[in-house]
Amino acid sequence: MQNPSIKWTKWANTLARLKVKNLSVWLLEIGEPFMPIGAQLLYIGQPFLGHDRVKDLAHLLENKEETRAFTAFLKKE
Questions:
Q1: Which domain does 51 fall in, by range?
Q2: DSSP state of 18
Q3: Positive or negative, the Cα torsion across 59, 61, 65, 70?
Q4: CA-CA distances (angstroms) from residue 7 to 1, 44, 60?
């Protein structure tokens, strides 16, 4: 398993490259009550979407503290 900061840096770079970083921060902030549902949908979709990245994202979404920390990380970047 990669260090979360390395993984988060890769995710932040991808979001910035796609020009959706600010939108992602906004969605993470307002969508907090729905994160567990989103995580479960990602777990269900794993076989179709690709295993490791989807699993990492689902884990992030089901952990409120980690989601908040990643959102703060994106704001700092």
A1: 4-76
A2: T
A3: positive
A4: 9, 22, 11
pTM, entire model: 0.82
Task: Give the tens place of pLDDT for each residue, 51-63.
Answer: 778 888 899 999 9
CA distance 5 to 59: 15
53 contact partners, CB below 8 Å, separation of at least 6: none
How many separate domains does the chain show? 1
N residues, the chain: 77
Residue 31 burial (CB count, 10 A): 13
Q: What is the per-residue pLDDT across 5-43, written as a single tens digit (0 to 9) for each?
A: 788 999 999 999 999 999 999 999 999 999 999 999 999
